[in-house]
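call fold(seq) -> C-alpha cells
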Amino acid sequence: MSDKPTDPTVASQVELIIRRLDSLSILPSVAAQCFSKLLRFQSSLSDLAEIIESAPALTAKILSLMHQEGVGFADEKFSVRNILDKLSAHIVRDALFSVKVYPAFNRDDERSLLRRQLITHSLAVACCVKDIAEIISPQIDPELAYSAGLLHDIGKLALDEAMPRSFAGIVEQAKSQEACICTIEQKHLGVDHAILGKRLAQKWHLPNQITLAIWLHHSDTCLISQNTPEAKIAQVVQLADLIARQCNIGRSGSYDSPDLPDTISQSLAINPEKLEQIRQNLPDQVVQKSKVLGLDSPIAVKDYCDIVHTTVAQLAREHTKLSLENRPLQTASSHFDFITDFLSSINSNTAPIDVAENFAVRWQKFYQTGLVCLYLAPPADSQLLQAVVVESPSQTKTVILNAPAETTPIPKAIANSFAILNAQGYIDWLFEQLDVDFDLGQAKLVPILSGSKAIGAIVFELRYPAETEQLEEKFKAITSIAGAVLDMALTWHNQQRFAEQFAQLLTRPEKTQPQISAEIPLKETQPQITPADPFIALAEMAGGAAHELNNPLSVISGRAQLLAESETDPEKKRMLEQVRENTNQLSAIIDDLMTFAEPPQPRPSQMSIKQMLDEATHLTAQKQNLEQLDVQIDIADGVESVFVDSAQVASAIANIFANSLESYDDGSGPIKVTAAADESEGFVKISISDEGCGMDAETLQKATQPFFCSRPAGRKRGMGLAHTQRIIQLNEGYLNITSQLGGGTIVTILLPCK
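ret:
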C-alpha cells in the first residue's frame, strides 16, 4: 500500500461506503446452521438463540430489530434470548433470511481465513468479557457485556466486507510492521475501525453501552471511565481484547505486542488469580462457540448449498399454499384495511417517491405478488423518471430511469383509462434498465390514474391464476386512491420547490460581476459562470449518483477477479478479465464524478501568474505525452500574481490547453495565452486562444456540461471543461468561452488578485 499522506476526502468516502451497509454478512457455515433451524417451523425461536448470540452479524441484526420493534427491558435483564421471546416469529425469520452470506466458498483462501479468524477473536473477547463482568457484577450486566465484546470489532468486519482488498492490505502491513491496525487504518483511510464501528452502531440503533464499547475500546478507558461511568463497559472490553490477544485466539488484525492488562485489572479490582483462571478457561469456551457456528466444518459450503436448495423448495410450497388459501379471503373489508394502512403510512410532507414506495410495498403484501415496480410519469421538461422496486417488504429501492425516446412511458392503452395489460411488449424499456429480472410471462401492468390521466403505472408479477374481470374492479378502486394521493403529493412537492427557489432568490446576496472584455467581437458567447450558479446542484446530484454506483461496481469487479483467478478455461478467463477491466473504467468515470461533485476546498495564496502558466504547460505535456508544447505566453507589465489555489487553477488551465490541442487536426497548436489587468478592479484576465476547428452555437452551449463531448462516443469522457468551470468557480473566478466553427476558440478567465 502507498505511504503517501491520506487525502482528507478519503475518510469521508470510506464512512459513506461503510454507512451504506444495512447489516453484516454471515459465513456459509453459519447460514447452514441458522437456516436449517428456521426451516423447522415447529421449533421455537429460542432454538436459534445459541447461533444468533455467537454470530456478530446476527446479534447486530437482532439488536437493531429490537429498536425497530420497540422492545424494551423494564424489569427483565438484557439478553438475546429475551429479545427473541418478545419478537414475532415471522419478523425474526424475515430478518434472518435477509442477511447476506459472505462470499467464502473457498474456505482455505486468505480472505475466508481472515474472516473466520476475526470472528474467532470476537468470540474470545465476548466470552472473556462475560467472565470479567460476572466477577465485578452488578457494575455491568454480563449478558450485555458479552454482546459488547462480540460486536467490538464490527468496524473491521465492515471494512473487510465493503473494501476487502484494501482491508487485507492494511492487515498485511500491520503484520509486516508489527503495528496496531488502528495506526495503519488512520494512515491509509483517515479513520479507524473503532470510529466506523461506532457509526454503524448508531445507524443500527444498538444499545448505547455497546456503542461506547465499540467506539472506546482502543482509548484510555481507565481515564475515561473515571469521568464517564457508562464507559466502564469499554474498559472491560479492552481488558478482554488484550487477554484474547495474549492467548493468541483468532486474529484481531493488530500485530503490536499487547500491553499487560495490570492497570485495567487494578482499576476494576480484579486480582491476578481470577484473571489467570479466565485465561485457562477461555480456549475451551471459544471451541464450543465455534462448533455452534460450524466455523471449522470442512463441508460448510456443501451444507449451505443443500440447505438453500431445501429452503427455496419449502418456501415455494408454502408460498403457493398461502396464496391459494388467501385468495378467497380478499374481501371488501380487507381492501378497506389496505387503504387504511396505506393512508396511515403517509403525511402531508411525504415525498411523492416515498408515497409510491409505501403503496408498492403494501400492494405486494396485500395481493401476494412477486416483484413490483411503480414508476411515476416524468415531468414535462425531463427525460428522467423516478421508480421504486420492491423485491420483498424489507428489500426496496428507488431508482432513476431514462424515459423512452421513441414512445410514451405510460402506454396509450392505459394513459386515460383503466385496464390490466400483459406488460411484455409495452414497457420493455423499463425491464432493460432494472437490475432485477421480472418473469415476463407473469408481469402485469396497470395505470395509476388521477381523474382520467395516468400519473404513473405499476408493474407486478401475478403468480396465481385469476379472472381479469374480477381483478379489474379491485385494482381500479385501490389504484384510484393511490393516484389521488400521489397527485396531491406531486403538486405539493412542486409547490415546495418553487417556494424554495423563490426564497433563495430573495435571500441570495447580490454580487457585482466583472464584465469580461474581448479583443475580438464575440459572436457566439456562453453565459458567465458565477459562484451562485445552479451548477452547484448538478454537482451534488453527481456526487450522490457516484456514491450509489461505487458499491455495486466494487462487488462486480471483486467477484470477476475472484472467478478469473480460479478459472482454467482461457476464453472464460479472458471474458472475466474484460468484465473487470470495464468495471475499472466505470470506476474511473465515478472518480471523475466524485472529483467533480466534491473537489477539495481551495487553499488560496498569492501566486506568480508566470509560474502557474508554466505549471499548466508542464501538466498538459505530461497528459498528452508530448516533449514540448507550442504555447506562446504574453504577460503584461505590472501583472504579477493572483490570489488562488495555484495547483487547482493550473490543473483547470491544463484542461483548456488539452482541448485547444485537440481542436487541431495534428494536435500541435499553437496556443496563445495573454495575461493582463482587467477593467474590473481586483481581477486579472487570462485569455487562451487557438486557431483550431472551433465550435458551432449548439456545441458551445453544451461545452462545459459534464460528460459532453463533440467527438465520437467512447473517445473521451468529456469532463475536462466541466472540471475547469467547477474549479474556477470555487476559486472565486469567472469563465467565458467564445468560438466560431472553423474560426478557433477563445477561453477567457478572470481570477482575483487578492
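The chain has four domains: 8-293, 330-493, 535-592, 605-752.
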